[in-house]
Specification:
283 residues, mainly alpha, elongated
Length: 283
């Protein structure tokens, strides 16, 4: 039994470090992209179009992952596209977490009319189809990073609110909460010092998952040309372009798609690993 538990802990630790390592790598690549990218991501050279990666016959020196149909370096575009993906993930994920978790915490602990108002607002908000809602928002606000971030926050805050509300309601029935209130601590003080620390592991998991979702949403909107300018490198835009030339230049589709997949997977596994590591109940 002890050996099985030790093995589970080792797997959880390995999952945590692998996911964290990939995210750190993506962050460094995005931050250092202007200096480490081998080529200008916007530079076009039709004579260099659809060059294969360095290990395939016909490759050219300096184009490590090949070029697209316009002769733009795939590796450089992936590195610069990471900047867009991480900005959306960090900003949209953080704002969504702050708004949704705050409302969920208030509804779950204060109960009464506060819970009724927030719960009805959540029900109404979730009645709208998220994909159509996001496209409508982008159409109204116009393409751009700010529009994408607003759309993600407006749509996804309900996910945090529902889960955090349920966790706060559960924690509110615990003896330690009653003891704090008997000791004279106010309701807001009890919520911040007693409820919030025990709900925090769940919030962290949701935050990392939301960052992965934000990366996917930005890629989807880039895929349908509703993100930033089509000339600027984004993973979704590269995937959309690579889809049209998959039989002639598979690398234009595969490399940004694999990068997107690993990044989203890393965010989700990071959240699970952090929960296993810091959740006092699981520990």
């Amino acid at each position: 039994m002890a050996d099985a538990r030790t093995m589970v802990k080792r797997r959880a630790g390995l999952r945590l470090w692998l996911s964290a390592g990939w995210i750190v790598l993506i962050v460094l690549a995005a931050f250092l992209a202007p200096w480490i990218a081998p080529k200008d991501p916007l530079a076009q050279d039709m004579f260099m179009g659809r060059l294969p990666p360095f290990w395939v016959q016909g490759a050219e020196p300096g184009f490590w992952l090949g070029t697209d149909s316009l002769g733009r370096d795939v590796l450089s575009r992936i590195l610069h596209g990471a900047r867009v993906a991480l900005i959306v993930a960090l900003v949209a994920g953080t704002l969504t977490c702050l708004i949704g978790a705050t409302l969920g915490l208030l509804a779950g602990f204060l109960r009464g009319w506060v819970d009724v108002v927030i719960s009805r607002l959540i029900d109404i908000w979730m009645a709208f189809p998220p994909v159509l809602f996001s496209i409508l928002l982008i159409a109204v606000l116009g393409p751009g990073l700010i529009s994408i971030i607003i759309a993600i926050v407006v749509i996804d805050w309900t996910r945090f609110a529902r889960v955090v509300r349920a966790e706060a309601m559960t924690q509110g029935t615990m003896d330690y909460v009653a003891s704090a209130q008997v000791a004279g601590r106010g309701r807001i003080g009890t919520m911040l010092t007693e409820i919030l620390p025990n709900v925090l592991p769940t919030i962290v998991v949701l935050l990392t998952l939301e960052m992965g979702i934000a990366v996917i949403v930005e890629a989807i909107l880039s895929f349908v040309n509703l993100s930033i300018s089509t000339d600027d490198p984004t993973w979704g835009g590269m995937i959309a372009e690579g889809r049209t030339s998959i039989h002639q230049a598979w690398w234009v589709l595969v490399f940004p798609l694999v990068t997107l997949f690993l990044t989203v997977l890393a965010f989700s596994q990071l959240g699970e690993g952090l929960k296993d590591r810091f959740d006092p109940v699981l520990r």
